[in-house]
Amino acid sequence: MNDDAALNRYQLAELGSLLAEPARTAMLLALADGTARPAGELAQLAGIGAATASAHLRRLLDGGLLALHVQGRHRYYRLADERVAAMLESLTLARAPLPCALPKKGDAQLQRARCCYRHLAGTLGVAFCSALLQHGWLRTGSRGLQLLPHGADALAASGLPLAGVPALYGRSCLDWTERRMHLGGPLGVALTTAMFDAGWLRRLPPGRALRPSADGLRRFGLLGVRLD
Asked: Interhelix angle for 50-62 vs 22-30, to 10°?
């Protein structure tokens, strides 16, 4: 085994140890929507005390999974980058699907529409990406997925203004509930931000679940995006 292979082995083992603690995983998942949160809020979401949370957050920072933003006397934690969110999503795919069962209300809301590091995921996100590809509005290239000008015009005509967005590139992100691709990367983030601004989506606090508005569902439908 060469040195690079050995290094990768130890890095993977360290990653596994970071994710093996449920409290640390809970804090990572709470940040998977791209938000930044203070330690006290993360401790509450993980169900642990402040001192324990501080130790866990330090390990996640040292492990490269979190970044720290300091604003005056306040300290906010966020995921290091989009790759961490994509890793959290993709790790769920490593396990075999569970037997079919009626999902809990919260689980069903997450499956239908949620934030995956600030871009749209779930059934709605997969259907939206599929519609863009079927219309020929997205082009796959060496830099990822690019929204073409006529696609941007069509989205703007449907009520989704996208000034400056066509120049951005996105990437395909494997959705852990649908096991198909939704649109991530800077383009996915910009489109989802535009959906919030246009009133197509709203957040369902305190988690990552999103709810499309009635007008949003209508406009998604005009784009060929369908939800059962």
From this structure: 80
Angstrom distance (rounded) from CA 194 to CA 64: 30
Compute the distance between CA of residue 75 and CA of residue 39 in angstroms, rounded to an integer: 8
pLDDT tens-digit readout, 79-135: 998 888 878 877 766 554 544 443 455 588 889 999 988 899 999 999 999 999 999
Could you please state the CATH topology (level 3) that the domain comprising 3-80 is classified under.
Arc Repressor Mutant, subunit A (1.10.10)
Question: So where are the chain's domains?
Answer: 3-80, 106-222
pLDDT digits (tens, 9 = 90+) for 23-60: 999 899 888 877 889 999 999 989 999 999 999 999 99
Name residues whose C-beta falls within 8 Å of residue 176's C-beta, 6 or more positions apart in sequence: 89, 90, 92, 93
